[in-house]
Write a structure and sequence with these properties.
single chain, eight-stranded mixed β-sheet, Rossmann fold, alpha/beta
Length: 254
């Protein structure tokens, strides 16, 4: 599915549909295609916004969660939006956590899937490793229960990204920032209804991490999706959307 990329005062973003705001935050290697199923399902009921996070454009010395969180805050202010349904995957979930704690008057509900913030593995090696396509392909496949979910175009895009020295340095700095920024002593402050949608076979943020989020976030509920790893909205889009729709229709089910 092709999306129009809007530009406004330096921000690049997808803006689909009308209604209450659904703000989608992608992960470190996130692409618009990651959210295709969510956009297609919910754009008829919601205004779906996806800011393109500047994970590769930031100066290396500033590359980190604080800068990305500031970017999202400024984007929300620029768009003059509130009553947000914030949905974040992986690094995007981590940013969503920080944003929600800092701006609870703007957030209506929070959905996390495969979020960092408590623990995440190092992907089993010294990722990213430049110049070795097979290695990159294996590391990408490691994040999916069924590697056939991944298109060659997706692997090619990541390979091209990590082949750039500046981009590779930014990735490393942001990943280190996320690992340093443990939120175990902060997330009890979240007051909004929170849904955790987790892959039962997640190798990056394993199921025990989801249980920890559920225990630490007061008004939260946890739903697992089987045969699914780190990106449920990509691997099991129909099941992901069904769980999300149930929550959006009746958030009190938490």
């Amino acid at each position: 599915m092709d999306y129009q990329i809007h530009e406004r005062n330096g921000y690049r973003y997808v803006d689909e549909g009308e209604g209450e705001i659904m703000l989608l935050l992608h992960g470190l290697f996130g692409a618009l295609s990651n959210w295709a199923g969510v956009v297609e399902r919910f754009r008829h009921q919601y205004r779906v916004l996806i800011p393109m996070l500047p994970v590769y454009e930031m100066p290396v010395r500033k590359a980190g969660l604080e800068e990305l969180h500031t970017y999202v805050e400024k984007f929300v202010a620029e768009m003059e939006i509130r009553d947000l349904t914030v949905i974040g995957n992986s690094l995007g979930g981590h940013i969503g956590l920080i944003f929600t704690i800092s701006n609870q008057e703007l957030v209506k509900q929070l959905i996390l899937t495969g979020s960092s913030g408590l623990f995440e593995s190092s992907m089993g090696g010294s990722f990213p490793k430049r110049g070795n396509y097979q290695y990159i392909k294996e590391r990408v496949e490691y994040t999916f229960y069924d590697p056939s979910t991944i298109s060659k175009e997706y692997v090619d895009e990541i390979f091209e990204t990590v082949s750039s020295i500046p981009k590779c340095m930014s990735i490393v700095q942001i990943a280190k920032s996320a690992q340093r920024h443990n939120m175990a002593d902060q997330i009890h402050q979240i007051r909004v209804p929170t849904l955790l949608i987790w892959g039962l076979n997640d190798t990056i943020t394993p199921p025990i991490v989801a249980h920890d989020f559920n225990r630490l976030i007061p008004n939260s509920t946890l739903r697992f999706i089987d045969h699914c790893c780190h990106a449920p909205m990509m691997e099991q889009p129909e099941r992901f959307n069904d769980v999300l729709a149930e929550f959006l229709e009746e958030p009190s089910f938490v």
